[in-house]
Design goal:
The structure holds two protein chains of two kinds.
Chain A: H1 20-34, E1 39-41, E2 44-45, E3 48-49, E4 55-60, E5 63-72, H2 76-95, H3 98-114, H4 116-127, H5 131-155, E6 159-160, E7 166-174, E8 178-181, H6 189-200, E9 205-208, H7 214-226, E10 234-236, H8 241-250, E11 256-260, H9 263-275, E12 283-287, E13 292-296, H10 302-314, E14 324-330, H11 331-346, H12 366-378, E15 383-386, H13 391-396, E16 403-406, H14 413-416, E17 423-429, H15 432-440, E18 444-445, E19 447-451, H16 455-464, E20 469-472, E21 489-490, E22 493-494, E23 508-516
Parallel strand pairs in A: 1-5, 8-9, 8-11, 9-10, 11-12, 13-14, 13-19, 14-17, 16-17, 19-20
Antiparallel strand pairs in A: 2-3, 4-5, 6-7, 7-23, 12-22, 15-16, 18-21
Helix pairs in contact in A: 1-4, 2-8, 3-5, 3-7, 4-5, 5-6, 10-11
Chain B: H1 15-36, H2 42-51, H3 58-70, H4 77-89, H5 97-107, H6 110-131, H7 137-149, E1 153-158, H8 166-185, H9 187-196, E2 203-207, H10 221-242, E3 244-248, H11 256-267, E4 278-283, H12 289-301, E5 307-312, H13 317-327, H14 337-353, E6 358-363, H15 367-379, E7 388-392, H16 397-405, E8 409-416, H17 419-435, H18 439-444, H19 447-453
Parallel strand pairs in B: 1-2, 1-8, 2-3, 3-4, 4-5, 5-6, 6-7, 7-8
Classes of the chains: A alpha/beta, B alpha/beta.
């Protein structure tokens, strides 16, 4: 059997928490990171720490009494300076040997590996994610470094097609200054992948982290600098998206925008980039939302389907772009699935995510909570189960009640709008084809899954299900770098899949060079 | 641990000698089992022969197991026949052409396809009945009593679907409590027991911990142990009041430490510390098994009455392999079957050495493994009534009789539960065991092959 594998890339191992030693290291991580609170996060441009007139505190979303960090917001002037500095350094960074840039990534992976416990604690406390999700996220960040390093090794080997008297080389040059605008929901992994890919390709990067997760972003920035990335190649600009983000998107010296976030913002960037009258085409790589579906066939193994649906819908409170928000069931399975699914939801424990027995944590902030609560009351008649959360808990943190809705109408907002929270709706389908039709009838094409033991239906789904990542007989979240390159199409995004073979090339321009080497009938020996 | 505390072998024997005696014991067991073969359990023989049809037909075997796994979710006869077509006609297998032809003809018409579906349904229910004792203790206690009459004790296990919620867990807890109630009230059982098995407790129940608590999680070790203890307490309380043996079963590697810690803690509670009828399981396919066994032995030494340890090889091998591959871990299990077999024997010795602090229960259908345990028991002077053999209900019946005739107790692991949901569980077992080249070959092997089966790979002579 030949397994096709063009690199010797190996995914980072997850931690085995059944080992007591692993659990105790983790606990120490929480203690040690708390000693650093509140973390002071500053804008850093070419290694220089910037003063700020606006300092915004960040609190633990599960316990708003706990202050995590003070974020010193960057100004428009800082953004301008970062762009100038980036531009100044571009030629140097571009001509730095790829091997050197590659080594920085490998070093960064090592440092990340050595700080797993503290990083886990910080992610848990700043964004309210559960430990196992965080473990997968840190592994993903490490994988991005290692994978893009390996990919760069391949890409920067010039492709030669020489003939007698003619040399042909196909090679890549970096595009130019890259703006990275990252989300808070994978505060380490997504930001890391989005940053190291353009960097290793030879582009200076301006990091604009999400307001809600700037402390983790700051840790990552420092790790990258510690790994050897020149401070003139990487600048850190925490701040308001509407202000510095918008300014930089419009900036004529930004060549590439690497964005992950909401559909509205992403499409806005694409419009903005297209409307600018520049001497180049500004490229926007955008990873946006999803309204992801799971189809449960009449022959599905419900033990597996229910548990996978619980994890996919409610893991990290549904705040993943890959999260499950529609479950489309064949009629014969509907009632049994529904009652087991409801009971399974009711068995989850809400609370502080740092408590390892907790399965339901807070949502990111009060804005998100208000928005989700209003959706819940708008569709209150469709609610078939919700997990009760104690009033005092809601008072201490941004907790919303995870909800299962039921709807007959897949075209209603319950079937169409991305909620980005722990809400999932059950729909009925007449047959498998109908289920696929319902699943496809949304603006998005990100993740999707089926539970079926019918080889014909599995084949049908492989051909017809409009998603970037299709999962069969398993949960629909938790993509792994290289094994499951992640990303969608339709209004879910534009650009290559993260952790996949095309990703790096987005930050490069391919160049073909042909040289006629014959002079007056004389061909130099090669 | 002081050396003097250990159970010393009565005579120093060379290892060649030992191997010879194990071989001899194995031959004896095979001979004895042949003499029981055609009596009491002949239908099983027929069934195992028919299972052999799947040997050397890997595609067919795969489809057959997949079909049986799927079967519980097929709700109508028409869906059964539809899936027979998809699984066996439209998917290539090694089915002989004439069977395929017949099958297609039958499936082509509505009426005859119903016949095929009914046949399949009947066949699968029949298969399930070979391995699953019955629906409930109350409905099928006759079978258990028959087994007792034939000299074979039971440990009863409740089968079912995975427990996904606390509501489902509550249902299992009440099923366990009901089972304890029913067993303790069974007069007929107690009469036979008193006459034939004087030392035996009122009943014997194997508890699957994952069915008592839906949120078992190795990351949340402490809270998992605490919750599991809470769930177990009423069950143990009831068992103690009724003098019923409780064994805590083992499942996946990741919950092993939770179950072990739970056992250690709850068995030490004042109500339970002096109860003689508790047991746990050690899985010899785990690399950590000897280390764990040492812990169990040390723990048991502190008890007034010894714990029983059911030594098995383990039934989740493929699951553990895929889990560890996906997470990038070293597999927790031995990669080669022969290493597991060897480790099983080493664990057996550890158990026997600890006499009288642990009561060994050798759970295996492998004659070599059992012979080795018997020979070593004699070597360490462990009396035959101090240890026992455990085998699955429905498997290896002639061996059970053979072992009985040596004066060693045999206990059957007897699952009860609904046939249909239980079927899914059973298929998982069959799937797991089908790669364990062992049992089917063992029982159906001719005498020459049997001799070969009696060697551990690394003791095989050239």
């Amino acid at each position: 059997m030949s397994l096709h594998h063009n690199s010797n890339f190996q995914n980072e191992t997850l931690r085995d928490f059944s080992r007591e030693e692993e659990r105790s290291i983790l606990n120490k991580g929480f203690t040690s990171i708390r000693n650093e609170f509140p973390i002071q996060v500053f804008p850093i441009i070419s290694g220089k720490t910037k003063k700020s007139s606006l300092v915004v505190p960040v609190f633990n979303p599960a316990n708003t009494n706990e202050k995590i960090a003070d974020i010193h917001y960057a100004s428009v002037a800082d953004a301008e300076e970062a762009t100038k500095e980036s531009l100044k350094f571009f030629e140097t960074w571009k001509s730095t040997k790829p091997e050197i840039r590659i080594d920085f990534l490998k070093k960064a992976a090592d440092i990340l590996r050595s700080q797993k416990a503290e990083l886990t604690a910080l992610i848990s406390l700043e964004v309210g994610k559960g430990v196992k999700d965080i473990d997968a996220e840190i592994a993903e960040a490490i994988d991005f470094c290692e994978f893009y390093a390996k990919e760069a090794e391949n890409i920067f080997q010039p492709r030669k097609r020489d003939l007698l008297g003619e040399e042909n080389v196909y090679t890549y040059i970096p595009r130019g200054v890259t703006l990275v605008v990252a989300p808070w929901n994978f505060p380490l992994a997504i930001l890391c992948g989005m940053t190291v890919a353009p960097l290793v390709a030879g582009n200076p990067v301006i990091m604009k982290p999400a307001e809600q997760s700037s402390a983790i972003a700051f840790k990552l920035f420092n790790i990258l600098i510690e790994a050897g990335i020149p401070s003139s190649a990487l600048h850190f600009l925490p701040g308001k998206g509407e202000e510095i983000g918008a300014y930089l998107v419009k900036h004529p010296e930004i060549r590439t925008i690497n964005f992950t976030g909401s559909r509205a913002v992403g499409l806005g960037m694409i419009r903005e980039a297209a409307s600018q009258d520049l001497k180049f085409v500004k490229k926007v790589v955008a990873e946006m939302g999803g309204k992801n579906a799971m189809i449960v066939d009449e022959d599905a193994d419900l033990d597996e389907a229910v548990i996978a649906s619980i994890q996919s819908a409610f893991g990290f409170q549904g705040q993943k772009c890959s999260a499950l928000s529609r479950i489309i069931l064949l009629e014969s399975k509907y009632d049994t699935f529904k009652s087991r699914f409801i009971d399974a939801l009711q068995s989850l424990k809400p609370g502080l995510p740092e408590d390892p027995s907790v399965k339901v944590g807070p949502v990111i902030d009060s804005e998100s909570k208000t928005r989700l609560d209003s959706i819940a009351s708008q569709f209150s008649s469709k609610i078939i189960s919700k997990l009760k959360i104690e009033e005092n808990q809601k008072y201490i943190g941004h907790f919303v009640e995870p909800i299962i809705f039921e709807s007959e109408d897949p075209t209603s907002p319950l079937g169409q709008t991305e909620f980005f929270g722990p809400y999932v709706t059950l729909f009925k389908a007449k047959n498998f084809e109908d289920a696929i039709k319902i699943a496809n009838n949304v603006d998005y094409a990100l993740t999707g899954g089926i539970f079926s033991r019918n080889p014909k239906n599995i084949q049908y789904a492989k051909e017809k299900f409009e998603v970037g990542n299709l999962y069969i007989n398993r949960g629909i979240t938790g993509a792994v770098v290289d094994r499951q390159p992640f990303g969608g199409y339709k209004l879910s995004g534009v650009g290559a899949k993260a952790g996949g073979p095309d990703y790096l090339k987005q930050f490069l321009e391919p160049i073909s060079i042909t040289e006629n080497t014959m002079r007056r009938g004389f061909i130099p020996e090669t | 641990m002081k050396a003097t505390e250990e159970n010393e072998p009565k005579a120093v024997t060379s290892s060649l000698d030992l191997q010879e005696r194990i071989l001899e014991k194995g031959r004896e067991l095979f001979r004895l089992s042949d003499s029981f073969e055609d009596g009491f359990f002949s239908t099983y023989r027929l069934f195992s022969k028919s299972l052999l049809f799947l040997e050397n037909r890997p595609l067919l075997k795969l489809q057959a197991f997949r079909f049986a796994d799927l079967f519980p979710s097929l709700s109508s006869l028409s869906s059964i026949s539809r899936y027979i077509r998809i699984y066996f006609v439209e998917t290539p297998t090694e089915l002989p052409k004439w069977i395929l032809l017949l099958l297609s003809i039958f499936l082509s018409n509505r009426l005859s396809s119903v016949v095929v579906a009914l046949g399949a349904k009947f066949g699968i229910r029949l298969t399930a009945k070979f391995f699953i004792l019955g629906r409930t203790y109350g409905s099928d206690r006759k079978k258990i009593i028959d087994r007792y009459k034939n000299g074979i004790c039971s440990t009863i296990d409740i089968l079912g679907e995975a427990v996904l919620s606390e509501k489902e867990a509550e249902r299992y807890i009440s099923e366990y409590l009901l089972l304890l109630e029913e067993v303790s009230k069974d007069k007929e059982l107690s009469e036979i027991r008193n006459s034939q098995f004087p030392g035996e407790p009122t009943g014997n129940v194997s508890v699957k911990c994952s069915s008592l608590y839906s949120q078992l999680d190795p990351l949340a070790h402490e809270s998992s142990v605490t919750h599991l203890m809470e769930k177990l307490r009423p069950i143990l309380h009831s068992a103690v009041s009724k003098n019923i043996f409780i064994n805590l079963d083992m499942e996946q590697y990741e919950t092993k430490d939770i179950i072990m810690d739970t056992a250690f803690r709850i068995f030490s509670e004042p109500e339970f510390e002096n109860y003689p009828h508790f047991g746990i399981v050690v899985q010899a396919y785990l690399k950590a098994s000897q280390q764990d066994l040492q812990k169990v032995i040390e723990y048991s030494k502190k008890r007034k009455y010894p714990l029983t340890v059911r030594l098995v090889k383990g039934a989740y091998w493929e699951y553990e392999m895929t889990q560890s591959a996906q997470k990038g871990w070293e597999p927790p299990v031995f990669l080669r079957k022969s290493d597991t077999d060897k480790n099983y024997e080493e664990c057996s010795v550890l158990l026997l050495k600890s006499y009288p602090h642990i009561r060994p229960a050798f759970g295996s259908h492998n004659i070599r493994s059992l012979s080795s345990a018997f020979v070593r028991a004699a070597e360490y002077s462990v009396p035959e009534n101090f240890f026992e053999v455990q085998m699955l209900y429905g498997m290896g019946n002639s061996y059970k009789q053979a072992i009985r005739s040596l004066g060693i107790s045999v206990r059957e692991y007897s699952p009860i539960g609904e046939v249909i949901p239980g079927m899914a569980y059973l298929v998982r077992r069959l799937l797991e065991n089908s790669t364990n080249e062992g049992f089917l070959k063992n029982i159906n092997a001719n005498s020459k092959d049997r001799e070969r089966l009696l060697y551990l790979e690394n003791t095989k002579q050239k």
